[in-house]
Amino acid sequence: MRRGIRSLLFVGVSLVAFAAVASPALAADGVGLWGRTDDKVVTYWGFGLMIFFTVLVIALSLIQIRLESRKERLRRELERLRPPT
């Protein structure tokens, strides 16, 4: 019960914090934190996001492949050392 209340409180505080921080993003005349926002800036941000997530997926997949091969190698080693029953 306490855990649920704590989680709800955390979500509420997070939403209030995000709402307070969102005001600079909604600045007048398209001038926000980055500066004047035009089609070129939006396009480059979009390409940057696509590249970021592509690289992220590839890197995490390579990490998972390495960990899986390590797990399989350890399992084969344990089976080799385990005496037959």
Describe this structure in words.
This protein is mostly helical and 85 residues long. It is built from 2 helices and no strands. The longest helix has 43 residues. The relative contact order is 0.04.
Mean pLDDT: 86
Poorly predicted tracts of residues: none
Gross morphology: flat
Q: What is the C-alpha radius of gyration, as a whole number of Å?
A: 24 Å
- Overall tally of structural domains: 2
Q: Enumerate how many helices there are, as a single number.
A: 2
Please outline the helices and strands.
Blueprint lengths: L1 H20 L17 H43 L4
Name the descriptors:
85 residues; mainly alpha; 2 domains; 74% helix; 0% strand
Summarize the structure.
With 85 residues, this protein is mainly alpha-helical. It has 2 helices and no strands. The radius of gyration is 24 Å and the shape is flat.
